[in-house]
Design goal:
- The protein is an alpha+beta fold.
- The protein has one domain.
- The chain has a four-stranded antiparallel beta sheet with strand order 3-4-1-6, with helices on one face. Strands 2-5 form a two-stranded antiparallel sheet.
- Helix 2 packs across helix 3 and helix 4 runs antiparallel to helix 5.
- It is globular.
- The C terminus is likely disordered.
Length: 172
């Protein structure tokens, strides 16, 4: 299978932990109360709004995700879109994978929102999809640190998937 055909299924997932700073936590609680939604729904909406803002072109004509991925890969990357999904019960609130927590009493489930970038929406300078495997472990870790800092969250987990089409869910 050629890579352009695979680009529909390959994706980079940035799984986001809960807010890190008390001020941000208070703001999410206020938003949830004001819009009559759960804290998880409010946090997802907050992340979606933030990601939408990061997708808007800035003064150089590129969006912030384009700049971030270009810096990380060291080559031109144009980000044309993302979608929001959720990981249900896969992570605890402190970012541990649930499968790694042996004591069931320590498993505090967290509905983790994720920003997903399909390879077909990550294009090189010639307009071809970026091979998702370029996001190797050191580069994913770099993205993890940058997103943790940018969004002021407790933790971030970055993963890639290939040959898999996730089920898109509309943001809450």
């Amino acid at each position: 299978m050629s890579y352009p055909n695979q680009s529909e299924k390959d994706h980079l997932d940035i799984i986001i932990g809960p807010p890190g700073q008390e001020k941000l936590i208070d703001s999410v609680h206020y938003y949830a109360e004001k819009h009559n939604m759960t804290i998880d729904e409010a946090w997802s909406k907050c992340l979606e709004n933030t990601a939408d803002n990061l997708m808007k072109p800035n003064e150089n004509g590129f969006n912030s995700f384009t700049n971030l991925f270009t810096d990380v890969l060291g080559e031109e990357v144009y980000v044309e879109g993302y979608f929001l999904s959720h990981y249900f019960g896969a992570f605890s609130a402190n970012g541990m994978l649930m499968a790694r927590i042996k004591n069931p009493e320590e498993r505090q489930k967290y509905t983790a929102p994720a920003l997903n970038f399909r390879s077909k929406n990550l294009l090189d300078g010639e307009g071809n999809p970026i091979n998702i495997r370029k996001f190797d472990s050191p580069r994913r870790q770099q993205i993890q640190y940058l997103i943790t800092y940018l969004l002021d969250v407790s933790w971030v987990h970055v993963t890639i998937s290939y040959g898999f089409t996730p089920i898109e869910k509309e943001a809450v």
